[in-house]
Write a structure and sequence with these properties.
By secondary structure, the chain is of the alpha+beta class. Helices cover about 40% and strands about 25% of the residues.
Amino acid sequence: MLDKSLRKNKKGEVMVEALVAISVAVVGLLGVFEFVSRSFSLNRVIADQYVGTYLAAEGIELVKNLVDSHPWNSPDAIPDADPTDYEIDFQELSLQPIISASQPLLFDDQYYNYSNGQPTKFHRIISIDPTLNNGDEIKVVSRVSWSTRGGGQSKSEVESHFFNLQQ
């Protein structure tokens, strides 16, 4: 009689051990899934920072091309009037005063611009101060901002100074 009751208890122990083992495995898998999910989320954040930084650097480069292609401090290249905030893309040959601060850059499957493509989350503003060092220095700040997941804002800012070396 005692023998039969011990066998029944052992069968119950196997079931309890199996449930504990399954619970441990499920908790471990949930941790792995959380890690993968967070990894994908951070990948998006890093990709946006990468694009924002390079769009800001592109803004500086486009202004540099304008400065290099015109006589120093020419109104054709750098307007000397208000407003001091502009937008520019690789298709434009001059700085355009900002019409709307909420105008996003568009993406046309290859390039970011203001004329055609799908709206993006990125907004670029180029600020110019041509009055430094008696007009022999131009300060250019390129700011790119974008909305992040959850409604936050992120930004990238690049500053450069151009000097009149033809004195």
